Amino acid sequence: MKEQDKDIITNEEQTENVQPQQTSEPESDKPADDLSPTLKEVIEEQATEDEAPITSALTLRKILGGDILTTSAIRRQIWLFLLIAFFAILYIANRYSCQQDLIEIDKLQKELQDAKYRALSSSSQLTEKSRESNVLDMLKNNNDSSLHIANQPPYIINVPEE
Q1: pLDDT tens digit string along 6-62?
Q2: Does residue 39 contact residue 18 with C-beta atoms inside 8 Å?
Q3: In 10 A of CB 77, how many CB atoms?
Q4: Which pLDDT belongs to residue 30?
């Protein structure tokens, strides 16, 4: 920062020294090799948008003050910034996709739970209707059926193997 102040003071001194002097000599007699720059040249030099080179010593003040974010530093690191942005977009897209998959899994688990409950309900109704007492009641109510309860136990027939 002090070097820049010295440069500015030097440039201001130069602009003060460059003011045209009233002399009796005609301009054609002035040497063409005048070493002092003209006022126009000094102003053009100061008006350029070039940045001052960054010193090699990085301090916390420079980092927090934003001096590190000069256009030349950003131009050198543009591919790094693009890579970071690409990975951020990829991360967000992946997270969104995972959340959509988790929502779909929850929906399918609820559907599976409902299907299990319906299957259990149907199984219990079928078991109730096929109980022996219910079947006998249905046979008694339907007099036209020729089915009745057996009076004798079933016979076991043994077939010898040859």
Answers
A1: 555 555 555 555 455 545 444 555 555 557 778 888 887 776 655 555 566 778 887
A2: yes
A3: 13
A4: 52
Within 8 A by CB and 6+ apart from 42, the residues are: 11, 14, 15, 18
Separation between Cα atoms, residue 115 and residue 25, nearest integer Å: 110
Q: Output the six-digit token pair for 12.
A: 């201001």
DSSP single-letter state for residue 61: H
- Distances in Å between the Cα of 59 and the Cα atoms of 12, 63, 69 are 29, 6, 13
Residue with the two structure tokens 């890579």: 83
Cα gap 108→68, rounded to integer Å = 53
Instruction: Read off the pTM.
Output: 0.43
Burial of 155 (0-12, 13-18, 19+ CB in 10 A): exposed
